[in-house]
Structures are given as C-alpha cells and as structure tokens.
Design brief:
With 324 residues, the protein is of the alpha/beta class. Helices cover 44% and strands 19% of the residues. Bound molecules: D-malate (MLT). D-malate binds next to helix 3, helix 7 and helix 8.
C-alpha cells in the first residue's frame, strides 16, 4: 500500500516537474536575432515590438544583432538554435526569400524554420546624398544615366531588401548601379549623409527622419499611395516611374520543431504589440504599414513566404547576382 502511494506521489512529482513546456513558456528572457546592424530599420522595428511583447510574455525580449552575408548568417544562427522558443529570428523578403536564390545556404528557408507571424511592411524610397544635382526622380535618373561610371548604391549586402530594391530600380529605370555592401542600412545611411555613397533604395522607416531633417534627399516611394507619415514625398507613379511598386514585408520565425503552443504564444504576443495603440503609432510614424488582419496566423506567413519565393526567385536568378 505504502509502496504504491510512494510510486504514485513520485510519478506525480515527475509529471508535475515536467508539465508541458508551453504552459510555463517563457520562464526566462527570449532572444530575437536581427540579421542586420543595430540602428537600422529591422533593428528599430524589432526593438519597438519587443518592448511591448515583454508585457504579454512576462519576460524580456532581447535583440541580438548577428550580421553578414545579406542577413543569411543571422538566419543560420536561428536555424541551428534549440527549438524551445527562446531563440527566434526577425527577417524579411530579403533574408527569407531572396537569399535562397543567391547564396548556397546550409539550411532550407521553408523546411528548417517555423513561421511565427507576419510583421509590418516598409514601402521603399529612393534617396540620395544632398550633393546630387537632382530635385526630382526624373532628374536623378538622367543624372545616373549620364554618369561615365555607375553611381554607388548602399545596400545591406547581396540579397538584402535594399539590394533587391536596387535590382528592381535598375530594371524599372534602366540605370546601372554599383552596389556597396554594409552589414545593414543603418551604417549605409551614415555614409549617405556623409556623402560617401550616392544613393540607397531604402526602407522608408530608415530614411524618413533623415529626409525630414534635410540631411539626405528623398525622391519617391515605391507604392501606389503616398505614405501617410510622409505626404510630401511623391509616389513613383507621380514621379514618372509608374508601376515600380515594392514593399518589404517582414516576419518572425523559430527553429524547426519549436512546439506549436510556444509558437502560438509568440504569435499572440506579437499581435498584441501590433494592436497596441502607442506601439502601432510608433511604427506608423516610421512609415510602416500594418500587416493585413487575415494574414495574422503562423500558417499565413508560411503560405505568403512560399508564394513570394515562387514570385521572386525567377527574377533574382535572372539578375545573376554574384556573391563571393
Ligand atoms: C536593415 O535593417 O539593415 C535592413 O533590413 C537591411 C536591408 O535588408 O536592406
């Protein structure tokens, strides 16, 4: 009798000890790997979201910037992390679509990662150093075409959003660009303000404050509508490059095998942050566009990523991008 009681209470202890991980998740801070430099658009968005996700999760959300190779190194860090929800990754069209068509990755962007949530997207903006003798997009394109050698365009590395946008701008306008890779468009912006490089086809959220401050020149946003946060900046359609539309969507992913209920908690915390009025205002002030409500589930991000891979890989492969 005593023995069966002992074994029963022992079993209870064991099971009580290992109550399903999700119930207790999180029990310590979560790391979000941002595959680009601190101070850039991805870093800024994730730090704003992380601050509010902390309130829902009850644990800090720490940003770790692991950079290089167009963001593919940071994504690899997440792929090779424990599938327990404590190391997840920020990414976007560049890191979770384009890189698969450019780099020989030692991971699969779809099968080695679990989608968590689609995040806000950034319209792109064509910006230049102030020394460029152009006031309109048409004048900029003529100046770029008239130059004996290709103008320098800052990017966050081959496959990054600013690189894919640069390729799309070349295709739409017929200009030729010489890409200067950085570990993020944060440091690229510093060099643009300093006049070290000529242009960036940048995420609006990264350029908007510099354009407002007059330290760089903004020509047009790659969207059919003007950005509410920058109503004075023309659209490409208004500026004479109709149809050159591109918004850089972003998301969160976890390593393959991360429990579904942990994914659900991370998804809920991100949605809480996106629906939190002060957080939303901060993001919209930067020109960010909220993701559609009908794409808020992990599966919706997974389906969207696959659709974008089908759309962009042929375009990017045709550009024949060389990486060392
Ligand atoms: C960054 O945060 O630096 C960007 O997301 C880089 C890019 O993809 O252009």
């Amino acid at each position: 009798m005593f023995k069966s009681l002992l074994s029963a209470s022992f079993l209870l202890l064991v099971f009580a000890g290992s109550a399903p991980a999700a119930e207790k998740f999180p029990s310590h801070p979560i790391t979000v790997v941002v595959p680009f430099s601190a101070g850039g658009p991805s870093d800024a968005m994730m730090r704003i979201l992380g601050e509010r996700m902390k309130a829902t999760l009850g644990e800090a959300v720490l940003v770790e910037n692991t950079t290089g190779a167009g963001g593919s190194i940071g994504v690899g860090r997440v792929v090779h992390s424990a599938p327990d929800g404590y190391t997840i990754g920020f990414g976007h069209l560049g890191t979770h679509v384009a890189n698969g068509a450019i780099y020989k990755l030692n991971y699969d962007l779809v099968t080695d990662l679990e989608p968590i949530v689609l995040l806000p997207s950034n319209p792109m903006i064509v910006v230049s150093k102030n020394a460029v003798p152009a006031k309109t997009l048409a004048e900029l394109i003529s100046w770029l075409k008239a130059r004996p050698q290709a103008a320098t365009a800052g990017t966050a590395g081959a496959g990054s959003g600013s690189h894919v946008a640069g390729l799309a701008f070349e295709a739409a306008s017929g200009v030729k660009l010489q890409y200067v890779p950085y570990r993020g468009t944060g440091p690229a912006m510093n060099d643009l303000v300093a006049g070290q490089i000529d242009i960036i086809v940048d995420q609006l959220s990264n350029s908007i404050n510099q354009v407002r401050a007059g330290t760089i020149r903004g020509y047009a946003v790659t969207d059919a509508r003007r950005a509410e946060s920058a109503p004075d900046i023309q659209t490409v359609d208004e500026a004479g490059l109709p149809g050159f539309h591109m918004t850089l969507w972003s998301g969160l992913w976890a390593p393959k095998g991360t429990p579904k209920d942990v994914i659900a908690k991370l998804n809920a915390a991100a949605l809480d942050a996106l629906n939190d009025p002060p957080t939303r205002k901060q993001l919209e002030n930067l020109g960010l566009q909220m993701p559609p409500a009908d794409k808020s589930t992990p599966d919706a991000l997974g389906a969207w990523q696959k659709a974008e891979i089908a759309k962009w890989w042929p375009i990017i492969k045709a550009a024949n991008v060389k990486v060392d």
